[in-house]
Amino acid sequence: LEMESGLRRALEREEFVVYYQPKVDLENGVIIGAEALLRWKHPDRGLVSPGEFIPILEETGQIEQVGEWVLKTVCTQIRSWQDAAMPSLNVAVNLSGRQLQRNNLCTTIARILEETGLDPRFLELEVTESMLMHDPKYAVDMLMQIRAKGVVHIDVDDFGTGYSSLSYLKRFPIDALKLDKSFVDGLPHDEDDIAICQAVIALAHSLKLRVIAEGVESDDQLAFLRNNGCDVIQGYIVSRPLPADAFAQLVWERH
Ligand code: G
Ligand code: G
Ligand code: NA
Ligand code: MN
Q1: What ipTM is given for this predicted complex?
Q2: Closest to 254 measured CA to CA, from 14, 15, 18, 32
Q3: In 3D, which of 228, 245, 248 has the Cα closest to residue 26?
Q4: Minimum CA distance residue for ligand 2 atom 21
């Protein structure tokens, strides 16, 4: 309850901040973008993880306002990196189920792109498998509308943890599957995780989708993923999520 009232004031007190975790192309080792991850700078408790407060924002409905703030902040940030002549970057924003269910989501995204003047192909969206399968017909329709606005990079997060209908997977206008950390964890030794990762990579490629592995921590995991054709990785082996300036510095250093 105390957290709930704190969250209610967090937006106006400017206590939210976006961190950026790099995504690296395995073909050339280049940082091609980032996942935007929300943090709450609580006045007493320090950095609070979204795992603790996103569920509360979802329950109270505040996620819509905060989600819009995240989209706006990220689009503004990408624009300012472009203005500073940074190498080209895509940044992925996580959508919540409640945001996807609102039928004005497409209008909101279009307005933010317009306000920030960002070319829509630099904004990437992450939706979870379970959000899509909650009402697949609706999700296909909504994602088609968003894609029609020029947002062509839509990734399926936590892939493999829920269950997808393969016939729908083909119909969603998506361009990448994110291999969940829980499967990457067991690489390169756990037989089941090996089988699952290889199957997801094969499935994705046969549907002409890219594969982004998340939660990559070790050289062994990285080697396995590279040898098995994974396209992009994200994880502590590259970097933890970073504040915008530190992320930009890393991009320059590795350029
Ligand atoms: O950043 P990790 O460090 O703790 O994130 C925990 C969870 O919170 C992840 O499932 C992530 O997808 C989710 N998350 C992080 N940022 C956002 C956000 O801006 N919006 C939504 N809806 N979820 C987010
Ligand atoms: O649900 P989602 O996939 O958006 O969540 C991403 C979460 O995983 C974030 O909380 C992020 O901080 C965390 N994360 C990212 N890379 C790693 C990693 O290499 N190891 C661990 N333990 N967590 C990671
Ligand atoms: Na995500
Ligand atoms: Mn994920």
Answers
A1: 0.96
A2: 32
A3: 228
A4: 215
Give the ligand whose atoms come closest to the C-alpha of residue 49: 1
The dihedral region occupied by 135, where left means phi > 0, alpha psi between -120 and 50, and beta the remainder, is: beta
Distance 215 CA to ligand 2 centre (A): 5
Across-strand partners of 243?
19
pLDDT digits (tens, 9 = 90+) for 183-230: 999 999 999 999 999 999 999 999 999 999 999 999 999 999 999 999
Q: Is the pTM of this model over 0.95?
A: yes
CA separation for the pair 96, 216 (Å, rounded): 24
Domains of the chain: 2-254 (3.20.20.450)
Distance 35 CA to ligand 2 centre (A): 10
Instruction: Calculate the alpha carbon distances from 8 to 1, 59, 145, 182 in Å.
Output: 11, 12, 31, 33
Q: Which pLDDT tens digit goes with each residue over 61-111?
A: 999 999 999 999 999 999 999 999 999 999 999 999 999 999 999 999 999
Packed helices 63-83 and 105-116: angle between N→C axes, nearest 10 degrees: 30
Which protein residues have their CB within 5 A of the ion that is ligand 3? 94, 126, 157
